[in-house]
């Protein structure tokens, strides 16, 4: 199990997630980088698919 590809993937995903202000499709990426507060907000809105 190599960690490098995973780390790179997480970094790329987290950047995307933050850039899109937590689109809620990638709650996990926020969780990985420790953006728990954002993730909470996201998980609540993720149930209602609203593209605001």
From TrEMBL:
Domain of life: Eukaryota
Protein name in UniProt: Uncharacterized protein
Gene source species: Cucumis melo (Muskmelon)
